[in-house]
């Protein structure tokens, strides 16, 4: 099971994600970001690519899609907050977007 991020890890790992447009939902201890694409096909292609990686990681996003918009929430349910898996999946998503 993934461990919740320590304060030290948060200091180093969350900063770059905030710069990349992620926000921290303190109530849920989650990362959130809204991705926008040209159209539905591109949004769904992004989700498909992410889904394959997420399933291999056994770490799954909470997300909501309407047309060209994908709203993402990342948190580790087993840890009741953020873990390295969320940082890794967020970075993967940014790479695909
Ligand atoms: C049994 C299975 O490994 C767990 O339920 C996995 C699946 N995907 C998961 N995804 C996320 N985001 N958090 C988890 O704790 C989690 N746990």
TrEMBL record:
NCBIfam families the UniProt entry points to: PRK00823.1-3
Kindly give the SUPFAM superfamilies that the UniProt entry links to this protein.
PCD-like
- Pfam families according to UniProt: Pterin_4a
Q: Which UniProt keywords apply?
A: Lyase
Which lineage do the record's taxonomy fields give for this organism?
Answer: Bacteria, Pseudomonadati, Pseudomonadota, Alphaproteobacteria, Rhodobacterales
The record's GO molecular-function terms, alphabetically, read: 4-alpha-hydroxytetrahydrobiopterin dehydratase activity
What family does the database annotate? Belongs to the pterin-4-alpha-carbinolamine dehydratase family.
Q: Is-annotated flag, keyword Lyase?
A: yes
- Superkingdom of the source? Bacteria
Record's protein name: Putative pterin-4-alpha-carbinolamine dehydratase
Stated EC number for the protein is 4.2.1.96
Q: Name one GO biological process term.
A: tetrahydrobiopterin biosynthetic process
| Substrates-to-products reaction catalysed | (4aS,6R)-4a-hydroxy-L-erythro-5,6,7,8-tetrahydrobiopterin = (6R)-L-erythro-6,7-dihydrobiopterin + H2O
